[in-house]
Design goal:
Blueprint: H1 4-7, H2 19-22, H3 54-67, H4 88-94, H5 97-100, H6 112-129, E1 133-135, H7 141-158, E2 166-170, H8 176-183, E3 187-191, H9 201-207, E4 212-217, H10 230-239, E5 243-247, H11 260-263, E6 267-269, E7 290-292, H12 324-363, E8 377-380, H13 382-388, H14 392-400, E9 408-409, E10 418-421, H15 429-448, H16 450-454, H17 467-472
Parallel strand pairs: 2-3, 2-4, 4-5, 5-6
Antiparallel strand pairs: 1-7, 6-7, 8-10, 9-10
């Protein structure tokens, strides 16, 4: 496929007008005086933009679309990321012009509807999480983590408790957790998991002390299990004077069923672009809304409805009020489902995961942790690799030939040949049965013809690239001289 620059021919161009634009006066008289841009900030030459006809442009983007893969194209069981179908009603609501044609600097009385969106979203999400207040400024999950840990730091500092320099993170945590703690200036203390994937209570007791600022934890955890000792875990941290941070990446399994606030957590972030069915991937937009208990409320960034932003606030973490239309989509999702629907979604996600896990074990795969899981489960392909040489990567690449997006690979790190599956509640039993049949076929191929797996995929647009070279020497600019 040619790049857009390779399609470019001097002098070609197009004028694309949307139906909405054609109803407007395209040459209105400006209501504000023109401002001349200083010469120092003006280009001396025109940008080297591609020059293509509307026909070429349309075909180019359609060709790109055919090469991409999303939840609307096929099964997408990306573990720990909740890549579920986004209902189209969310998009309809988010595209209403009275929501899209506003500006964050408008007077408050002209955007009361948007303020109501934030107020309702805060009310519903605080109810789901057991928190007392929420900010929607953070633009993504990791950004939400960063904001949440800043709240904890501000809390300790406000009490003059500057000795708390350590954040405890389980060894099965998402990689963003230790990164977030380090970015906020904390020392990261990793504690091991027990053989059944739970937090090691003895190791936790040994780790906490007067230097403990917080514990960062996901529950259900990264292997898809609810930690049976969660109330004891949060008590140990609180008794040591620390606070408990809830990573909301896996909330899809428990929303409407169990609340982080009731488990003893003081602050949490939510991935609205995961759990609450708004677009996910491609770099954004996302929303990492942060909820907290009242003890942390004074430190929140300012909100669109007047909360937070006081003298003790950690300050703005994003311009204005966050990605508004993402919050709007999440609110549409919540209002469509209602209380019972939210609970049913979580229960169906857990049912689907356990059904798929049982089918995979029946096919001959080995799960890293036996027993009932929550919304996701982890396969351990260590023995398969030892017997056949076929790795988790080989199996994942083989899935591409069957039109299935691979699951998360080599995570969590405590499972060496890991494939993590999360089928989500939006997948039907028929889709899961088809996917399990494909996995059984791949397992059979791995044992009978390992080389076929080593060289997969065979029927995709491109074959298997040199991923090490692609990561270390990416080509991200077009060379006009080539």
């Amino acid at each position: 496929m040619k790049l857009i620059f390779e399609l470019s021919k001097p002098g070609r161009g197009n004028k694309v007008l949307t139906p909405y634009q054609t109803t407007l006066n395209l040459n209105p008289t400006a209501e504000v005086p023109a401002v001349e841009i200083p010469a120092a900030f003006r280009r001396s030459s025109a940008p080297r933009l591609p020059e293509v006809s509307e026909n070429d442009l349309s075909r180019h983007y359609n060709a790109l679309a055919r090469r991409s893969f999303g939840v609307c194209d096929g099964f997408y069981p990306l573990g720990s990321c909740t890549m579920k179908y986004n209902p189209k009603i969310n998009e309809v609501i988010a595209n209403l012009f009275k929501f899209t044609d506003i500006h964050p600097l408008q007077p408050k009385h002209t955007v009361s509807g948007c303020q109501t969106v934030y107020a309702l979203a805060e009310k519903y999400l605080c109810g789901i999480t057991g928190m007392d207040a929420m900010t929607f400024q953070p633009a993504a999950g990791a950004h939400g983590e960063f904001t949440g840990i800043l709240l904890i730091k501000a809390y300790h500092d406000s009490r003059g408790d500057y000795a708390r320099k350590k954040v405890i993170v389980p060894d099965s945590a998402h990689g963003t957790n230790p990164a977030t703690a380090a970015m906020c200036g904390y020392e990261v203390c990793s504690i091991p998991s027990t053989p059944d994937g739970m937090v090691d209570l003895d190791a936790l007791r040994a780790a906490v002390g007067p230097d403990t600022a917080a514990l960062m934890l996901t529950n259900p955890n990264t292997i898809g299990k609810i930690d049976k000792n969660i109330l004891e875990i949060t008590k140990i941290v609180h008794d040591a004077g620390g606070l408990c941070y809830y990573d909301g990446a896996n909330l899809n399994a428990v929303m409407g069923v169990a609340r982080p606030g009731d488990m003893g957590f003081d602050v949490c972030h939510l991935n609205l672009h995961k759990t609450f069915s708004t677009p996910h991937g491609g770099g954004g937009p996302g929303s990492g809304a942060v909820g907290c208990k009242n003890i942390l409320k004074p430190f929140l960034p300012g909100s669109a409805i007047g909360g937070g932003g006081g003298e003790q606030s950690v300050g703005q973490v994003k311009m204005f009020f966050g990605n508004f239309l993402v919050v709007l989509r999440a609110l549409a999702y919540l209002m469509t489902l209602g209380n019972s629907g939210v609970r049913e979604a979580a229960q169906t996600a857990v049912l689907n995961a356990n059904y798929m896990k049982a089918k995979m074990e029946e096919a001959g795969y080995v799960c890293a942790y036996p027993g009932i899981c929550m919304h996701e489960f982890v396969l351990d392909l260590s023995q398969l690799k030892k017997e056949t040489g076929v790795s988790a990567l080989d199996v994942a690449k083989s899935m591409l030939d069957h039109g299935i997006h691979p699951p998360t690979m080599y995570f969590p790190l405590i499972v060496h040949e890991a494939l993590m599956f999360e089928p989500t509640e939006t997948e039907s039993r028929e889709t899961i049965d088809e996917a399990c049949a494909v996995m059984a076929e791949i397992l059979k191929t791995a044992k009978e013809d390992p080389e076929a797996c080593h060289t997969a995929p065979h029927h995709t647009v491109i074959g298997r690239p040199d991923e090490t070279k692609a990561a270390r020497h990416p080509v991200v600019r077009y060379d006009f001289n080539s």
